[in-house]
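Quick one: Glutamate decarboxylase 1-like from Prolemur simus, structure tokens please.
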Amino acid sequence: MHCGPIRMWLSCGSPFPCGCHRQCRCWMVVWRGGLVPDLLPSKEGKGLTRCFLLQIVDILLHYIKKTFDVKSKILDFHHPHQLLEGLDGFNLELSDLPESLEQLLVDCTDTLKYGVKTGHPRYFNQLSSGLDVIGLAGEWLTATANTNMFTYEIAPVFTVMETVLLKKMYGIIGWREIEADGIFSPGGSISNLYGILVARYKRYPEIKTKGMAALPCIVLFVSEHGHYSVKKAAAILGIGIDNVIEVKCDERGKMIPAELEKNILQAKRKGQTPFCVSATAGSTVYGAFDPLHDIANICEKHKLWMHVDAAWGGGLLLSRNYSYKLSGIERANSVTWNPHKLMGVPLQCSAILIREKGLLEACNQMQAGYLFQPDKFYNVDFDTGDKTIQCGRHVDVFKLWLMWKAKGTCGFEAEINRYMELAKYFYKVLKKKDNFKLVFDAEPEFTNVCFWYFPPRLNLIPEGFERDQELQKIAPKIKAQMIVEGTAMISYQPCGDKVNFFRMVFSNPATRQTDVDYLIDEIERIGKDL
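--- reply ---
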């Protein structure tokens, strides 16, 4: 099977399985024609496995180095049809015959080459960005363990670790451990779905057996700037998006409590039955925080479940300087919190937290006999799989636990405070620029900073429909050029009656003030002649 060796020179850090130490190098041999069956658990696969994995590590280390190099491109952009057709030996098509380990190494390199470096200092495109090395190590270990979170039996350390993390998060919110429950889920959209699912079950436990036909016409309320996942959850759960009532917001994107109460009373007069309010702590576009105490008062008055989508803003709870923005969250019945956003944990890492122990399990429990036997010899309280809507569940807790051990709460706090300061810096610089206009004149409430860029020619067009039609095209064109050149990434969107504007967010630990200055210069360079 082996046609001869290819010698590859590998720079090693300390310590690698080969016994190398810092500043030393070793020769590794990869055999041309070697195939996956030659790796462990093949009887003779130990050496080849070590060689193969060390070269994977070398590929990853090279990529990480490039990611943090501010001079490197964020991406080498190609259109979908180009990737489908194949690029320079990188072919996505699957064959019936196995390919060599050598080819797999090339494929791994190319996969990273044509992707986006989301840890690059000038990547501002999403709420989740950055590359935390400790979190990365946690993800590697998680993949190596390759286990499932449904029972203590097969994930003893991870299930207990999840309990420890959830307890920590309850305490930060302001709940007592004895009253709270929770689970890690596959992203904020699913966590929000859990919040609505449990809210409905709490009000109507018969839903589990009899279905929606047994219920009156139930409705829930969300800010008009709330995340679209609330409507999606309503569609999935059979509530229907027509029964999601959007509540008006003020000019900064915060839900108006008086409008919420008005909508609740209107729904009741129509014969509808309100059951849940989903408030937002850190909206996706504006970074707005709904007035949680006022909303909690209304929910208590009308006996409604209060869910808080803090997927984006939850991390601010770790900052003594800024946690006041979420004041009232302790009164919520459920909270979504995504550590993979502001806390910088590698994707994905989201938690749904419920302020009533036992409710998650009562809502979702199916007591599968082949998994959740009650007569096991250990404490089956740690068999958490019956709390979830999934069976198989990925281990998302270890990377967060490892990062928390590495940074401490104070380390997260320092990073988050720095993001807030960067947002203020960016705002102050833009405010002085003639060709930039902020969507909001006041200081940013969160790390979101929304703005327009006006090319000089637009200043000659009177304010109105014609200028807006031209302005609508500017952000997409600037972003497209940035992507083609690989210099930076920032998102844009329209919102309500506002035409396309840029949304800058800070959640990347590699970003510095110089990167902020660069982005401004880059927008002006590309946009000045548009």
